[in-house]
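Protein modeling request. Please complete all fields; requests missing the sequence field cannot be processed.
Requester role: graduate student
Desired output: 3D structure, token encoding
Chains: 1
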Amino acid sequence: MKNAFDDAELRAAIGLNSANSINISRLMAQICYYFEAASQLTKEQRENLVVAVPSGNFGNLTAVCWQKR
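Delivered output (69 residues):
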């Protein structure tokens, strides 16, 4: 993959893109994890839900904050 991303001609030809934590598509997909988890709880449990996000996982942290809103 690294070689593919380093090849500008290939990237342009096939529209190669990365789904990293700052990619809006990935953040939108990650939000689904938290909707799914919250949907399995009662209303009272959802109101008291606390989510722990591993250190260094800013994409997941952003997703859970957006889902809460």
